Amino acid sequence: MASTLLHIKNFFQSVHFKKYAKRFGFFILGLIALLLIACGGLSIYFNRNKTEIIAKINTKINENINGKFHIGDFHYKFLTGFPNFTLALKDVELKDNQWATHKHTLLKANEVEARLNIWSLLHNEINIHKILINDADIYVYKAENGYSNADIFKPKKKKTPENKSDRETTIDEIDLNDVHFILDNRLGHKLFDFDVASLNTKVNYDGSDWQTDVFLDTQIKSLAFNTVHGSFAKEKELKGTFNVSYSSKKEKIDVVTRNLKIGTDSFDIIAFFNLAKGNALFGINIGTSILWQNASNVLSANISSKLNRFNLSKPIDVNCDIKGDFNAEGDPRIVVQAIIKDNELSIPDGLIKKCNFKGIFTNNFKPKDGYNDANSAIILTRFAGEYENIPLTIPQLAINNLEKPLATGNVSSEFDIERLNQISNDKWIQFTAGHAKANLKFQFDIVDLYITKPRFIGKIDVDDASFHYIPKNVHAVKTNIHLDFTEKALLIKQITYKHNKNTIFIEGKIDNFLNLYYDAPERMIVNWKIYCPNIDLKQFLGVLATSQTTKVTAKTAKRPTISNHLRTVIDKCSVIIDIKADNINYNKLTATNTTATVQMIDSRLVIKNGSLQTSGGSITFNSEVKPSGKNFAFSSNAQVNRVDIASFLKSFNNFGVTSFNPKNIKGKLSSQANVTGFINSNGELITNSMHGNLTFNVNQGALLNFEPIVKIGKFAFPFRDVENITFSDLSGNLKLRGEQIDVNNFTISSSVLNLDAEGIYSFGRGTNLALTIPLRNSKNDIKLATKAERDAVRDRGIVLHLIALDGDDGKMKIKWGKKDK
Q1: Which residues 6+ apart lie within 8 Å of 363 measured at CB?
Q2: Where are the transmembrane segments (predicted)?
Q3: Contacts of residue 284, Cβ cutoff 8 Å, sequence gap at least 6
Q4: pLDDT in tens, 96-139
Q5: Reported confidence tier of residue 551, pLDDT bands at 50, 70, 90
């Protein structure tokens, strides 16, 4: 290595090398001197021929324009662009002949630098090698009538055989720096506005055809194909190299660019532009992999304003195809295709995870209806994802008419219904088990990009569902539901509901369901047919309980969800139930062969045409039960026919009467009642709450150890069996007033005595009963054949008039007296 370096050092110090180095230095100095002489000569030539050169430039330009070309000043740039002759024009303006009408200057430049071929110039010809435009404004204007200030350039004359060999003036290179370019097409409502920081191009000619690579660095102020809808890529930086070629035969420019930067994203673009007279067709195809928000922000405002309400978390592969006519009004044809794989789609109604589909946007859904929002559509194919943890499969979904969007398609889903708990954000229902399967054809409006009034035709099957309906505190297990949505009605089939020891089989129908559900839920009538082998009525009173209130946030108040809308419908709709039960238990009452029509209206339970058998007899009734605070208010109109009175009273806890219990009485009770009252949350009658009218009679009856009669008997009839009284007539006409009862007519015809009572009986304080008791022994009255005969002898003999009152010790006291005294 050291010997090599020594050899090189000796070579540079040799006489031979110094000799040739000296000659090369003289050669370089000669070239510089020659260059200076040539440049000086060009400067002298320009100064001597300045007027003639400028005149030739003006003549050459004015020969090719219909307008006015103005130069404020010009000078020669020494050595710049050598060996070309560089001429700098200052304050250049180019106007068309109609500038006074539209006031748009085609070109206004602080400096235009033209580099002329020296050899051509020495032969008195102008051949522009390169044009540089610095600090300029270019405004290409096209009026509504089709006139353009760019038409300033005269058409070229066809060459004749005599001058075919003459060379045309060509421009080989063009550079733009700090140029503001505007293309304002009023005819087609298009506006292209660019702040060009730099544009460089070198043109290669092949006869009349040419090709160039254009480097462009610009800021997009407007790229509006329709000024009504706004600009594409507004305020985005565009930077890249375009391969541009022109075919004179096709009169068309083709453009290809790869990795073009628009903002921070890269795009591949293929485009064409027709230049033939009367043919201004163009096409632009754009491909990229991009984030949804970035892609949306590249589009025009009318599109991005809608797309920005959506989002995809991962980049998507997108291809956009734009075709149109620069001379045509309105939008060009736009088709956007995107492939989405394993992504998360945010929509105004929620988030769809594990999302896969192919999406297509077109603004020409029906080919004959033009390019506009009303004829635009979004089509999704092979859609799969999870909405609120619910798996969805949609073979095809179409959203038509983006002015009034309408979505149609088919959806299928199969899942464990515990997943529904995530949809119910106000937690009004909680599922703990079950499986659901749905296959539906759907249609829904989209208002402000929210799903509105979804309508379905198809089937939903739910098996073995267990849930807790929180507002009514209802628990259910092993519930099966089969829903059939049709055009005219919702058919509810084969519902099996299990709650504690109760099993209910339900079928139902809701006419005009799809319309009433959204527009008038208060007019919706749900018709149920219910069969119960065995039911405990008390367990279902909770269904009528006042719903638990849920705090409404500003968000839920502004935007109702599917969940809380469903809850509103449940609260507002009316329910009519035709019920049949083999056995019904209520407290100690057991009823069989029960039938009734039940209406549930605004939390009220209305029972019509009720009929049941109990206690050896039958009851028919019409009733209403509704929540009242923590209790239930009821009203009833009932007819009781020959029930066992002891069993019946025991079933209803003796209606709160404490002065005797059911074991004190025997017989068959018939009664008619029109009463109101209250039942507590446990299903127990609230003592002393009843109001209304009651008439009754007991046949084949007996009073056993009835304290008021025993006391009277011991006082008035010490030798009669008052502890075991049989009677042929026990009847009354009562008015219930809560704690007190107005006894209008109470009659006992018995084996011991006859008794008539009238006045007030109180469950607390306030008893004041007037008792009329004939002293004669009525033991043998039963042997009389007719009631008339018994009535004729009823009041013979001595008659006692007694008053039953409350004593100071709380026990009933008997004294002499009549009611009016």
Answers
A1: 331, 333, 334, 371, 372, 373, 375, 376
A2: 24-46
A3: 269, 270, 271, 320, 321, 322, 323
A4: 888 988 989 999 999 888 776 655 555 555 566 788 899 999 99
A5: very low
- 487 CB-contact burial (10 Å; exposed 0-12 / middle 13-18 / buried 19+): exposed
Cα–Cα dist 305/766, whole Å: 78
Q: Tens of pLDDT along 7-40?
A: 666 655 666 656 666 666 655 666 555 555 555 5
Structure tokens at 47: 């100064």
pLDDT tens-digit readout, 512-540: 776 666 667 777 777 878 888 877 766 65
Highest mean pLDDT among 110-119, 267-276, 403-412, 599-608: 267-276
φ, ψ of residue 712 in degrees (nearest 5): -65, -40
- Where residue 819 falls among pLDDT bands split at 50, 70, 90? low
DSSP state letters, 257-308: EEEEEETTEEEEEEEEEE-STT--EEEEEEEEEE-HHHHHHHS-HHHHHHHT
Contact assessment for residue 661 and residue 645, using Cβ atoms and an 8 Å cutoff: no
CA dist 639 and 802 (Å) reads: 33
| The pLDDT value given to residue 117 | 61
Instruction: Choose among 35, 33, 42, 36: nearest CA to 122.
Output: 42
Q: Which two tokens stand for residue 130?
A: 């390169």
Environment class of 47 (CB within 10 Å of its CB; exposed 0-12, middle 13-18, buried 19+): exposed
Distance in angstroms between the alpha carbons of the first and the last residue of the chain: 150
Do residues 404 and 423 touch, judged by C-beta distance below 8 A? no
Please state, in angstroms and rounded to a whole number, the distance separating the CA atoms of residues 416 and 435: 4
Q: Which long-range contacts (CB under 8 A, 24 or more apart) does 560-563 make?
A: 561/349, 561/423, 561/425, 561/426, 562/349, 562/423, 562/454, 563/423, 563/424, 563/425, 563/426, 563/428
The answer to whether residues 440 and 457 touch, using CB atoms and an 8 Å cutoff, is yes
Mean of the per-residue pLDDT values of the chain: 79
Tell me which residue of 774, 769, 776, 760 sits closest to 817, measured CA to CA.
Answer: 769
Average pLDDT on 386-415 reads 87
How far, CA to CA in Å, does 643 sit from each of 242, 616, 620, 659, 771? 101, 5, 12, 22, 28
Tokens 């040539």 found at = 38
- State the DSSP code for 227: T
Hey, what's the torsion of the CAs at 671, 672, 677, 678, to 10 degrees? 50
- Give the predicted TM-score (pTM) of the model: 0.57
Strand ranges in 557-649 using DSSP code E only, listed in sequence order: 574-586, 589-601, 604-614, 617-628, 631-644
CA gyration radius, the chain: 51
